[in-house]
Design a protein that fits this description.
Blueprint (H helix, E strand, L loop, with lengths): L3 E3 L18 H30 L6 H9 L5 E2 L4 E2 L9 E7 L8 E5 L3 E8 L2 E9 L2 E5 L4 E9 L2 E9 L5 E3 L3 E4 L12 E4 L1 E2 L2 H16 L6 E4 L6 H15 L7 E5 L8 E5 L7 E7 L2 E7 L5 E3 L4 E4 L6 E10 L2 E14 L5 E8 L2 E3 L1 H11 L14 H9 L1
Length: about 400
């Protein structure tokens, strides 16, 4: 049984798909024949995969895991058989081995910047034992094993310890929450703390320290791995668009563009999901591999050939502000702030409060912090958007 915990998903948001009916005779015919071809190819691939899955009578656990890491074996994920590259948006992962459920056999742990999976062999077949988005880390020590969840951003924190049992069941402790209730940017007695019931700051901090201390004894050692190598950026972007049809509910509302963010002549692939909640994804290409970034709100702006991106959109009284850089194919968040509505004791809107890097600041300080990182007057948005068929035609040219 797969347990899915999703903090970040574009839904991958999760990482995520029904195609809208196309109108027009030619389009309908194209879709019909495409679906027939795709179905035939899928059935053939499944037959081949099935043969591969069962052609391992003498393989030991290490060899089977290696076949999976090489993309030669599939795993069931969201009611479909997929290869390891379909589990991740990016192309670079880390993996390690550790007995997370205490049954005496090591499981395979794989992760990237967003998602973490535990893969367990059942009858020599890889199965997903656990899936977690954002803030999940396996902990294996001489005393205990489990999964530590620690998510902290925008004046909020959530902490939880999860135990995975040998029978596949899961026992989770109650999540501990901190909310910067008085919105001063600090953890203090004026904030709200909760775990099963309201607790005070001292109780929260004590529990937090106990869980973080477990990480210090962690014995897991991670190894980096590249899932695929692409000869050209066009090949890489076609592969990513195909991946989205496995991972997401791609519709006719999705738009695409080629933009220039960093200072080379290779464009980045921009994807707009057609909804504010779905957000936008940007894919980079560098040295045979891809990097990805998603923000769950639309309105991403960037400085052409400047290597910088900016988004300050939000909703419902909460407006995160994020500044990113793109260098050698890697996206990094280099500045984080947010604006939040503040209400008086009677529940009436009082004013906006501003935060930068977890500290309360004035509006002027907030604006200066953003301006120090990026010149918003030079930022642009994609000028041309294409349909999927149009962008694939460009990439296949």
């Amino acid at each position: 049984m797969v347990r899915t915990h999703k903090k970040y998903m574009m839904k991958c948001a999760a990482p995520i798909l029904a195609l809208s009916t196309l109108t027009g005779c030619k389009k309908d015919m194209y879709v019909e024949f495409s679906e027939i071809a795709e179905t035939a190819a899928y059935d053939e691939a499944n037959m081949q995969e099935s043969e591969e899955q069962h052609d391992l009578p003498g393989a030991d656990t290490a060899e089977i895991y290696e076949h999976f890491l090489d993309g030669k074996l599939t795993v069931e994920w969201r009611e479909q058989q997929v290869r390891i590259s379909d589990l991740f948006w990016g192309n670079d992962i880390e993996y390690c081995f550790g007995d997370i459920d205490g049954d005496g056999a090591e499981e395979l742990h794989i992760r990237d910047n967003f998602v973490y999976y535990v893969i367990k062999l059942q009858n020599k077949t890889p199965q997903i034992l656990f899936e977690g988005w954002g803030g999940y880390e396996p902990v294996v020590t001489d005393k205990f094993c489990g999964i530590f969840y620690n998510w902290h951003k925008y004046g909020r924190e959530e902490i939880k310890w999860i135990q995975i049992n040998a029978d596949g069941s899961e026992k989770s402790e109650e999540t501990a929450y901190w909310r910067d209730h008085n919105k001063d940017g600090n953890m203090d007695e004026g904030d709200s703390f909760y775990r099963c019931e309201d607790i005070d700051m001292e109780q929260y901090v004590r529990y937090r320290q106990e869980q973080i201390a477990k990480q210090a004894e962690n014995t897991l050692e991670w190894t980096g791995r590249r899932l695929k190598h692409f000869e050209t950026w066009k090949e890489a972007y076609i592969d990513f668009i195909d991946k989205m049809h496995v991972a997401e509910t791609v519709t006719d509302n999705w738009d695409y563009s080629l933009i220039y963010v960093d200072d080379d002549e290779i464009p980045e692939l921009f994807i707009y999901t057609g909804s504010m909640a779905g957000g936008e994804t940007i894919v980079s290409f560098y040295d045979g591999t891809i990097g990805t970034m998603n923000r769950e709100r639309c309105g991403m702006q960037y400085i052409e050939y400047g290597g910088l991106l900016y988004n300050g959109n939000g909703n419902m009284g909460f407006y995160p502000c994020n500044v990113y850089s793109l260098e050698k194919g890697v996206f990094s968040e280099i500045g984080t702030g947010w604006i939040s509505e503040h209400f008086d004791e009677q529940g009436n809107f009082d004013d906006y409060v501003y935060f930068w890097e977890d500290s309360a600041v004035t509006e002027a300080e907030f604006e200066a912090s953003v301006d120090e990182l990026i010149d918003r007057s030079k930022c642009v948005e994609p000028s041309v958007l294409y349909s999927e068929n149009e962008i694939l035609e460009i990439l296949n040219a």
